[in-house]
Amino acid sequence: MSMSALLSSLDTPVALLDVPRMQRNIQRMQHRMNELGVRLRPHVKTSKCLPVIQAQIAAGASGVTVSTLKEAEHCSAEGINDVFYAVAIAPGKLDQALKLRRNGCRLSILTDSVVAAQAIVAFGQRHDENFDVWIEIDCDGHRSGLTVDDPSLVEVARTLIEGGMHLRGVMTHAGSSYDLDTPEALQALAEQERRLCVSAAERIRQAGLPCAEVSIGSTPTALSAQSLQGVTEVRAGVYVFFDLVMHNIGVCRADELALSVLTTVIGHQQDKGWIIVDAGWMAMSRDRGTQRQCEDFGYGPGVQRNRRVDRRRAGDGCQSGAWHHHARHRQPGRHYCALPHRQPAAHSAQPRLCYRCAVPGLPRLRCRRCNSHLESLAWLVISN
């Protein structure tokens, strides 16, 4: 079956995964981590897809990072047992964590406060469980964690260790990397992320306490780091598919975007220069990831197959509005001629409309978009 025939047979909206691109992305990150001498623990919330996770592990990844205990449960059920739940744990979830560990999952958890550390210790002692625990470090003021000079840093470590828990180490995430778009700024933040997290580990060690591991990571800083001295592992997730946020940041090319959404033209507002497609925010996500970046791709640009995304004209052909089940697609100064054999939309000086035209949309923020299609099982894998 030809690609055109295959696309014509699909019920839209549907997520399209370009496996060769994905494999190249996986190899690119793994190769760079190997060069820098650290383990790669991918964040699997990006895909939540077992074959994708298995491809990352086959390439050399060691363990996985998750954002929910449900993700940890699914990974463990498939034999992926080295799991880091990288969200500061709420005491009410310790029972779930305990069940996972008792079922064979080598789950490690996270905290960033003395009170939470005390709760972990109390629960662990009641249930005779020595939890593996990381301490979160704030390296850029972007989110949660303790700063390297916070007086409670050593106290948290001491509380865990003296309470019988196993302190795995310290971790951080340079979330502010998403606000950058030059190699120099990214390299500087990557070094700041490394230096501050390593310094936090050294503070704990200087207090006479063991702190074996240093875990850092975001896709932009992982691909921009020049040295990871003192770091033992990197956590990154977006790299497996990449997206337009990463494209704006400058850490990937348009031809490295592995995930897109196929949608169908269902209407035309000729006087407004709009076409209406059947992929609304349920398919495309309401998270406007590029809204505050140098180029705003709206709810995602429509592109022809093999057409390069031009950063200088990123606004052309972007979805400018999205509703529950449909969206409008803006083409300033032009009109779409949607071809009946479901090829991506082409331009015409004489606007007309043929229904059932396929328009691939490039990913803006892969996590939410990917998860929407995982919930509906609407996937097509393109292998070549």
UniProtKB/TrEMBL annotation:
Similarity comment text for this entry: Belongs to the DSD1 family.
One GO MF term attached to the UniProt entry: metal ion binding
Domain of life: Bacteria
Necessary cofactors: Zn(2+); pyridoxal 5'-phosphate
InterPro entries with a match to the protein in the record: Ala_racemase_N, D-amino_acid_metab_enzyme, D-ser_dehydrat-like_dom, D-ser_dehydrat-like_sf, PLP-binding_barrel
Keywords assigned: Lyase, Metal-binding, Pyridoxal phosphate, Zinc
Name the record gives this protein: D-serine dehydratase-like domain-containing protein
Residue stretches making up the D-serine dehydratase-like domain: 258-331
Pfam families: Ala_racemase_N, D-ser_dehydrat
A Gene Ontology BP annotation from the UniProt entry: D-serine catabolic process
Coiled-coil regions, chain positions: none
